Amino acid sequence: MGRALPASRGDGRDGVDRAKVGATERRLREHARAACDPGSEAVRDTGAAIDCLCRLAVTELGLLGAAVTLMTPTAPSPGAAVAPAPPAYSQAVAGASDERAHELEHLQFSLGEGPSAHAFTTGRPVLVPDLEAAFARWPAFAPAGLRAGLGAVHTFPLQLGAVRFGTLTLYDGRSRSLSSDEVTTCLILAEIGTERLLESAADGTSHALDPGLDLALRFRSEVYQAQGKVAVQLGVSLAHALLLMRARAYASDQDLSDLAIAILDETIEMGRHVD
After folding, report:
1. Across-strand partners of 65?
2. Closest to 257 in 3D by CA, of 218, 228, 207
3. Threshold 0.85, pTM exceeds
4. Which regions of the chain are under pLDDT 70?
């Protein structure tokens, strides 16, 4: 005879608790949609709406910072030699709670590793309550993040069905796990971020992402122009070219964007420096 399931409380509290949770989630959705509405006077465009969403995440969860990054895989160059390398992604920060959060997202891109890329690749949240315990997972990002004052990082993919196009990353200055209610809050905010970005694409206002995104896209353009140049020069794939650039930048303690500009200016070639 099978084991009996535990009896439900007969006082109706289970139903009341579920109703309270549902009402709380609805209020958060409504508040986030209203506060981050690009049609409102306080929010001038989609970029400002994403900034607002990130600040709301910081306020709701008591975080150090938050950022939304758009990501798309970079296709390999036709006829390039196949070399083992992690996937290359084109990325741009669509919004952040402040400049520090923006720089932390840039740090992940420059180093070529971190929770944002992992969440985007797998389509699953990546919860890192103690960054100090993640050295084996991200040998470059984990120590760099600790030096930048991070204790925990939690990333949620922005996706609609099986289609992914970015991440919401949350940063904290102390080691910290998220409760189940906090995870629900993060999923709701990621959902609202997805809605706002899809709405901007549907109504043709995606170009209205604030100038900070334009600057980020120009930076990405420089990196990927240099990546293409290195791929052609060395006869490797785009993914492997970006891997080599990141390794060179990391070894020389140089910003990836500065290295890209030097490659385009031909003051640096991969393997040697032009005096």
Report:
1. 171
2. 218
3. no
4. 1-21, 38-44, 73-90, 161-163, 200-221, 271-275
Nearest 10 degrees: Cα torsion 234, 216, 199, 39: -170
Q: Domains, the chain, ranges and CATH?
A: 20-209 (3.30.450.40)
Q: How far apart, in whole angstroms, are the C-alpha atoms of residue 194 and residue 159?
A: 7
**Assigned token pair, 233:** 């020069």
Distance separating alpha carbons of residues 79 and 77, to the nearest angstrom: 6
Q: What are phi and psi of 88, to 5 degrees?
A: -100, 140
Contact indicator for 168, 189 with CB cutoff of 8 Å: yes
Do the beta carbons of residue 199 and residue 236 sit within 8 Å? no
At 69-101, the pLDDT tens digits run 988 765 444 444 444 344 456 678 889 999 999
- The angle formed by the CA atoms of residues 234, 137 and 67, to the nearest 5 degrees, is 85
pLDDT digits (tens, 9 = 90+) for 115-160: 998 998 888 999 999 999 999 999 999 999 999 999 999 999 998 7
Please state, in angstroms and rounded to a whole number, the distance separating the CA atoms of residues 37 and 142. 35
Length of the chain: 275
State whether residue 86 is helix, strand or coil: coil
- CA gyration radius for the chain? 21
State which amino acid sits at residue 22.
Answer: G
